[in-house]
Amino acid sequence: MKKVGKRNLNLKYFNRAFIVIMTIECFIMVFNFFCLEREFDNYVDSSNEYTLVSKAAITLQSASDYLTDEARYFVITRDMNHMKNYFYERDVTKRREKAIEDIKKVKTIGKAADFLESALFESKKLENLEYYAMRLMTDALEIKDSPDFIIPESVKNVTLNEHDAKLSAEYKISKAWLVLFSEEYVTEKNMISSYKSMALTEIFNHSEHIHDESLENLHNSYQTVQVFVILIFVTGLIFFLLIIFHVIRPLYVLIKNIRENKMLSLTNTEELNILCHTYNELYMRYSTNEMFLKQKAEHDQLTGLINRTALDEIKLTLQKSQERIALILVDVDHFKEVNDTYGHITGDNVLKHVADSLSGSFRQTDYVGRTGGDEFVVIMTGCNGGRAELEELIRQKVGFLREKLQNPPEGVPAPTLSIGIAISDKGYTDSLYGNADFALYKVKKAGRDGFEIYSEN
User: Fold this and answer.
1) Tally of CA atoms within 13 A in the half-sphere of 191 that contains its CB
2) pLDDT tens track for 126-162
3) Nearest Cα residue to 333 out of 320, 321, 312, 347
4) Of the candidates 442, 436, 441, the residue with the CA atom closest to the CA atom of residue 454
5) 428 near 383, Cβ under 8 Å?
C-alpha cells in the first residue's frame, strides 16, 4: 500500500498539462514556420528586386546606347530609317522611362534609383547634342517633310549657331560627326555608364545585405523549428513513458491480481487507485458473502459445529496423510426420551450443551462436528506421540467432557454419552470409521454412558 499523503499522478490533470504543453510547442513551431516562410519570401523578393533593378539599369543603358547608335548611323549612312528608329525608341518604345518606372516600384533599393535617375537625366542631355547633329544633317541633305516621314519637331526646333548655319553641306555633315563623337558627347556617355555602374553596385550591396540578413534569419528560424520538433518528440516520449509506467504496467499487475483472485494494491495513479478501491470493496463484499455462505454450508446451524459436508472434505484430506489420527464417534444417550419428556426446545439445548462441551474439551487442532440428530464426531490430528500416549490423551479428554456435561445450563438435563474410538497410524483409512462404530456398538451394548477404544484384540 502507498504512504498516506503521497502525491499520485492524476491522469486528468496530466492530460490537460500535456495538451497545453504540446499546443504551446506546436504553436511556437508553426509560428517559426511562418517566420521561416517569411524570411524565405524576403530572400526571394530581394533577389527579384536585384534582378529587376539590374535589368532596368541595363535596359536604360541599352536604350541610351541604341539612341546614340541610331543617331550616329544616320550621320554616317545618311539613311532616314535610322532617324525614324531613333524617334520611335524615344517617343513610342520609351525603354528608358519604363525602366525608371519599374525601378520606382521597388522601395528597398537605397540610392540605386537616384543613380539611375541621374543616368536618365544625362541621357536626356545627350538628346540635345543628337538633335543638333540631326539638324545639321537635315540641312546638309536638304531633307524635307514627306508622306513617308515628317521631321520631328525636336529636330526642326533646333537653332544652329551663326557659324554652323553658314557652313557648306559637307562641313555641316563633318560638324555632325564631330558633335556625336566629340569629347563632350563621350564624356556624357561615360557619365551614363558610371551612374549605371553605381546603381548596380548599390543594389548589389543592398541585396547582399538583405540576403545575408535573410539567410541568418532563415538559419535561426530553421534551428528553432528543429529545437521544437525535438521538444515535441521528447514531450511525446515522456508522455508515453509515463503512460507505460503509471498506467499500462500497473494495469497488467491489476489484471494479474484479479485473475488470481487477490485484492489490488494501490498504484501511483489516482484514477487507477479509484478502480482499486472500488474493486477491493466489491472483493471484500464478495469474500464476506462467500465466507458466510461457506460457513453456512459447512457448519451446523443449531450447534455451530462443522457438518457432515465439511467432515467429508477433512476425511479426503486426511486420506492423503500418513499422520496418526483418532476418530471419535459420540451419541447422546436416550435423546429421543429427552425430546419426548422435555420437548424439542430442551432437546436442542441439550445438543448445544454437548456441542459446547465437546469444543471445550478437545484441542484447537481437533475437528469437532455434528453429523446429524444426536450424533457427533471428533477427529483428533497432530498426534505426534506414541499410540499409548494418544490413548491416554483421549481418556483425559473424555474425562473433561464427562465433567462438563454434569454442569448443564439451568433447565437442561445433564446428558450422558456413548463414545466409540478408533486410532489410525496412516491417516484416515477405509476401516477407521467401521472400527470406531464397532467400539460405539460395544458401549451401547454394555449399557451406554461410557467409551471404548477399538483394539484388534
Assistant:
1) 16
2) 888 889 989 998 888 888 887 877 888 988 888 989 8
3) 347
4) 436
5) no
Give the CA-trace dihedral at 58, 59, 65, 69, to 10 degrees. 140
Which of these, 362, 392, 393, lies nearest to 378 by C-alpha position? 362
Cα 147 from Cα 149, distance rounded (Å) = 6
Q: Residue 7 — left, alpha, or beta (φ > 0 → left; ψ -120 to 50 → alpha)?
A: beta
326 contacts: CB under 8 Å, gap ≥ 6: 378, 379, 380, 383, 390, 394, 421, 422, 423, 424
d(CA 396, CA 366): 14
pLDDT digits (tens, 9 = 90+) for 213-227: 777 777 787 788 788
Contacts of 62-69 with C-beta under 8 Å, sequence gap 24+, read 62/95, 63/89, 63/93, 63/95, 63/96, 63/99, 63/123, 64/96, 64/119, 64/123, 64/126, 64/189, 64/192, 66/95, 67/123, 67/126, 67/127, 67/130, 68/126, 68/130, 68/180, 68/189
- Count of positions (residues) in the chain: 457
Tally the C-alpha atoms within 13 A of residue 266's C-alpha that lie toward its C-beta.
15
Exposure string of 367-401, with b = 16+ CB inside 10 Å and e = fewer, is: bbbbbeebebbbbbbebeeeeeebeebbeebbeeb
Burial class, 13, CB count within 10 angstroms (exposed 0-12 / middle 13-18 / buried 19+)? exposed
